[in-house]
Automatic annotation (TrEMBL):
Claim: DNA damage is one of the keywords in the record: no
Compartments where found: Cytoplasm
Native source organism of the sequence: Georgenia halotolerans
Coiled coil (UniProt feature): none
PROSITE patterns, per the entry: NDPK_LIKE (PS51374)
The protein's name: Nucleoside diphosphate kinase
Encoding gene per record: ndk
Length: 138
């Protein structure tokens, strides 16, 4: 079995979509193994988004991710990394497929950073790294 890090981003929490996102995760058959509402620090986000350091949207991205509380979760199941990314949909919510979280619930709000409701680890290596960052006890 496999684990992934899921973030319900501050835009989703602000819009009261936390339950809807977690409902979809559980309805697909995955299990929550850790779950926490928290406000991320700049240091944590700098590590989390290390691959984007130096990009023009990096600092707006970190600001956005600190703009309010987010929900961090570790989700478990067979092929959950792929499975959650499939649930989440494409990065750009304007064109994300209907049926996905981003396609059903997201859109362009005219902001510098794409506000796309959720994050999910993109590989086994990222998942291990991100889970270690957000839930060092696990
Ligand atoms: P995530 O990692 O959040 O699940 P992703 O893998 O589809 O989504 P990444 O390429 O890792 O996206 O980018 C991280 C986040 O940075 C995106 O989810 C989005 O919020 C923002 N972002 C990515 N590319 C851009 C861009 N070109 N302009 C503005 N914001 C962006």
């Amino acid at each position: 079995t496999e684990r992934t890090l899921v973030l319900v981003k501050p835009d989703a929490v602000e819009r009261r979509l936390t339950g809807e996102v977690l409902r979809r995760v559980e309805a697909k058959g995955y299990r929550l193994v850790a779950l926490e509402l928290r406000t991320a620090t700049a240091d944590l986000l700098d590590e989390h988004y290390a691959e984007h350091r130096g990009k023009p949207f990096f600092s707006p991205l970190v600001e956005f991710m600190m703009s309010g509380p987010l929900v961090a979760a570790v989700v478990e199941g067979e092929r959950v990394i792929e499975g959650f990314r499939s649930l989440a949909g494409a990065t750009d919510p304007t064109v994300a497929a209907p049926g996905t979280v981003r396609g059903d619930l997201g859109r362009d709000w005219g902001t510098t950073v794409v506000q796309n409701l959720v994050h999910g680890s993109d590989s086994a290596e990222s998942a291990a790294r991100e889970i270690g960052l957000w839930f060092p006890g696990l």
